Amino acid sequence: MALESSERPSQPIAKFESMLKTDDVYFFDAEDFEDIIHHYLNHGKIALAKKAIKIGLQQHPVSIELKLLNVEVLVFENNLDVAELMLDELQLLDGSNEEIYIQRANILSKKDNHEAAVNLLQKALDLAEDSFDIYSLLGMEYLFMDDFKKAKENFMRCVSHDQHDYSSLYNVIYCFEFLEDHEGAIQYLNDYLDGNPYCEVAWHQLGKQYFSKKMFSEALTAYDFAIISDDSFIGAYFEKGKVLEKMGRYEEAIENYETTIKIEDPTSHAYLRIGKCYEKLGNDDMAKYYYYQTVHEDPLLDKGWLAITNFYIQKKNYKKALYYINKALNIDGENSDYWKRCAHINSCLKCFDQADYAYGQAIELGDNELDTWLKWAEAAESNNDLEDAIAILGRGTEFHPESAELLYLRAGYHLLNHDRVNARLVLTQALKKDSDKFYLFQEKFEQFSQSEWALDIIASAKKASR
Fold first, then answer.
1. CATH 1.25.40.10 holds for 265-332
2. What's the pTM value of the predicted model, to 2 decimals?
């Protein structure tokens, strides 16, 4: 049955869904269809939104607003060519509709033409009565263009219009942070809080800004106010715990982390922080318990496995440390941090062939830190493979051409390998690069200070480097 317009359902969404389940046909005003479609789009129910658009256009075939919502869905689904053709038709009908420019801007944005998108959004601003949604879109376009100053200005306009627009508030602070203007962020948040003293989101963000400036007392106060504003705000308890850790107040930090667990389901991050606090307090049993809880809760959290491994390394219980790092590698063999830690443990156990292999794996997985190259070469040398150690240092120099340390170590290995020619050449390079670090060579290869032929090479290298 069809309802007359005077019999509009009081709950359009419920009536619409009821209609989909039956053979009944209800009549809706175009505005009702707009509300229904917006509801489904806001909840990510694209299929239902498309059904509503189809039925809506059947009942209101000349509705420009419904056609524009159809364009919005087409753009979302990357049917850009079809969307542009529809916009061309709509612009002939209503060239002063700002939504046409907004959708054209969305299409250009998807094509990475952000400057052109900004120009169209500026035109939409000239036509719009309510412009703050457009300011939000402009802010996003400027973010894509890495123009954080203009992005910040546009998001600020959104917040000034709607002080509960927390998405824009977060974006404002993100821009301040990217510009490394923590003082500006603090001033902005304090001004915002003058008019919104019970906004837990703003207090939380203010605490993070103070924390980044190591103003721990101020950060603690901000988090306390966030909790006063909303005593179930998990993020504030967690961040407060981090501040208390930095202040050495580990027992209080534990209390705050435990509060997050009481409010909501436990998280691996909370367990990890509690474990670290107990370790700082010297309570090894509780530290181990919470580290085990961490990896049980989230076996993919690398910080959990590394925390257990480091715990046993500090206790010099290398066999236990190796057991846990191997468990971690069985779960994620592509983690370079795991391989590097595995290499260190094997070096401590004097299993240099295993250490050599593990350092190689870490490098292959993208760990190109100077320290890794140096330790890999030392592991190869300890494994009585000087040629390999020299080759490793040569590869490391490609990634760290500024490092004299790699050259001094390589020169020493050439000497150990009785390659006097290359030893002289590499040592000369090292001295030219940084003669002040010659002590590294002297400390590592003290045996050559007594060798006449080695002293001759060193003297000639020093002369050549001048």
1. yes
2. 0.78
